[in-house]
Amino acid sequence: DEEAEAQRITDKFTESVYVLANEPSVALYRLQEHVRRSLPELAQHKADMQRWEEQSQGAIYTVEYACSAVKNLVDSSVYFRSVEGLLKQAISIRDHMNASAQGHR
């Protein structure tokens, strides 16, 4: 039965080719090729992300610094009001002294 023998040999050959095509080393080779092709783009994405992170950190620092400056201005309004009051008192005293000086003439 030569036809059955040929079919058996063909089946074994097909099975061997299938096993070879799916052998782990072939899978690892395909994985390595995929990584080799993908790596430059992934490296570029990583560099872009790092640059964006640095820019974001800079922007966050700037905003935090600005918020701190505004808070300090708001907090210092008490001192500005105090200085304003002292200036008004000084002007009033000056005006009173000028009036007194003119009265003595």
From TrEMBL:
It is found in: Lysosome membrane. Signal peptide: none annotated. InterPro entries: BORCS8 (IPR019320). Keywords: Lysosome, Membrane. One of its GO terms (cellular component) is BORC complex. The keyword Cell wall biogenesis/degradation does not apply. Belongs to the BORCS8 family. This is BLOC-1 related complex subunit 8.
